[in-house]
Amino acid sequence: MVAIASRVKLTFDEYLRQYPQGEGFFELVDGEFIRMEAIRAHKNISRFLMFTFNDEIRRLKLDYIVDKDIVIRTVNRLGKERGRIPDVSIVQASFWNNNVIAYGAVTETLELAVEVVSTNWEDDYIDKLEEYETIGIKEYWIVDYLAIASRSYLGNPKVPMVFVYQLKDGKYECKSFKNNETIISSIFPELKLTIEEILKISGI
Fold it and tell me: How far apart are CA 51 and CA 137, in angstroms?
């Protein structure tokens, strides 16, 4: 991540208006633009999951839209406003198509958000987890394909894992999956996918 300092802390609306178009992806953290940069393996996984989810949406004719660069407004428990861009997002198609002339940011809560873990893994496991729970994202996946997080999350020895957080009564409940265990999703209950398949796609 690379921060672009600003003299004045930006609000979410200002972040959208001043977004550096054509210069990559930027999140809003503590009033500043933060450039998001990903390696190719990370991109491979994000693209694979987007296509996999889209296949399920089409097969089951679900009222969902899946995309990789949807901007969402989040707040943490202290009420601080942030702009996030999950690696993969799923939103209800009826919400999305209700205002098709709007730009890519959404104010409706997502059905599902996926973060593919990078070196700044605490953002996904701590900050974004709190924010996504607070705004009511129904399901949140953390895909730690490089087993970067600490042993308190991944065990010893550390192994690649997918953590699926599902919102129950306003709080996330977590299940973890490794090796050839089928990932269980409430959004896609018929999905057949394992972390081993995701690892193959990464190219690592």
Answer: 21
- Alpha-carbon torsion 37, 134, 83, 55, what sign? positive
* pLDDT per residue as tens, the chain (204 positions): 444 545 578 999 999 999 888 788 899 999 999 999 889 999 999 999 999 999 999 999 999 999 988 999 999 888 889 999 999 999 999 988 888 777 768 878 899 999 999 989 999 999 999 999 999 999 999 999 999 999 999 999 999 999 999 999 999 999 999 999 999 999 999 999 999 999 999 988
Tokens found for residue 145:
């394909």
Question: What is the residue-wise DSSP string for 63-130?
Answer: SEEEES---EEEE-TT--EEEE--SEEEEEHHHHGGGTTS-S-B-SPPSEEEEE--S-HHIIIIIHHH
With a threshold of 0.90, does the pTM exceed it? Answer: yes
